[in-house]
Design brief:
The chain has 300 residues and is of the alpha/beta class. The protein is 55% helix and 14% strand. The protein has one domain: Glucose-6-phosphate isomerase like protein, domain 1 (Rossmann fold). The strands form three sheets. Strands 7-6-8-9-10 form a five-stranded parallel beta sheet, sandwiched between helices. A three-stranded antiparallel beta sheet has the order 3-5-4. A two-stranded antiparallel sheet has the order 1-2.
């Protein structure tokens, strides 16, 4: 795949390969130790995952970790480019063993995440979700300005419960003011609604895909065990580290551009001063040339 289309960012093999220079990708031994190679039972497999399966042992499919390492590198480079461009990536992981680590890693790079039940229509009906988030902000404002204290005990209890419910489901996406530029999903089968919504809107999907899942709807497939907490933590740590590097590079570029502007400002001022001085000199020359002509006319 030479070019991957998604909003605002174009990734080619050239700039993906350039992104690997600083990123630390997991080695074969690290992937093996984390148990990334374990798939599901042979009877539960999805034939579309055949290219990523190395062998079958004791009725369980074993994934090819060399392909896993290559796919992790590719996905990490793409996510780094997205983060560097200032876009948001939404992390989705509602299964028990992935919740905590996903929340920690997403918070470390300042990205939104969903670890409770996926709110249906969160992407396809995003304006309604934003209204619910604004409602939460309104309740917070009531608490600060004293309006909340003037309510009855029953109203206070109802609003507090409503606020807690909104915080649980939407608190982690409160800063998401527009649709994300990409989704990172742990367990494609469990998060099939999120994947379907992203596909409908043309949002690229990065996902950890096990042997029982269909990779055809995923833009960046990471074939690995999506049930083991160590495996999930290793993959998330890799992609989030790459995103952190992208964000750091973005900061450095901003500082460099500011410095360049600061250096260019005096030069522009000097050019303007020279131009104004030249204009004044030309005006004075014209006036001195006109003065004798006017004197001659007056003498005649």
């Amino acid at each position: 795949m030479d070019r991957v289309p998604y909003p605002g960012v174009v990734i080619t093999k050239k700039n993906v390969n350039n992104s690997f220079t600083k990123m630390s990708t997991p080695t074969f031994d690290q992937l093996l130790e984390a148990g990334c190679h374990f798939g599901h039972l042979k009877r539960k497999w999805n034939p579309a995952m055949a290219p990523y399966i190395f062998m079958e042992r004791n009725g369980i499919h074993i994934l090819d970790l060399y392909k896993t390492a290559a796919k992790v590198e590719e996905a990490a480079a793409a996510l780094k480019s997205i983060a560097k461009s200032g876009k948001k990536v939404l992390f989705v992981a509602t299964k028990k063993q992935a919740k905590q680590v996903t929340a920690e890693k997403a918070q470390s790079v300042g990205m939104p995440y969903v670890i409770e039940r996926w709110p249906g229509g969160m992407l396809t009906n995003f304006p309604t979700i934003r209204k619910a988030v604004k409602k939460m902000a309104t309740i917070d404002k009531m608490t600060k300005d004293g309006t909340f204290d003037n309510l009855s005990k029953r109203e206070k209890l109802q609003i507090s419960r409503q606020r807690a419910k909104l915080e649980k489901t939407l608190g982690s996406i409160a800063d998401l003011n527009r649709l994300p530029s990409a989704l990172f999903v742990v367990d494609v089968l469990k998060e099939r609604i999120a994947v379907a919504e992203a596909n409908r809107l043309g949002i690229p999907v990065f996902a950890m895909v096990d042997t029982n899942s269909d990779p055809s709807d995923i833009d960046f497939v990471i074939p690995c065990n999506d049930d083991a907490s160590k495996s999930i933590e290793l993959i998330l740590d890799t992609v989030c580290s790459a995103m952190a590097e992208g964000l750091e590079e973005r900061k450095v570029e901003k500082v460099d551009s500011k410095d360049a502007d600061a250096e260019a400002a005096p030069r522009r001022e000097r050019r303007r001063a020279v131009r104004s001085n030249d204009a004044e000199g030309e005006a004075e020359t014209a006036e001195t040339a006109e003065a004798p002509a006017e004197a001659e006319e007056a003498a005649e």
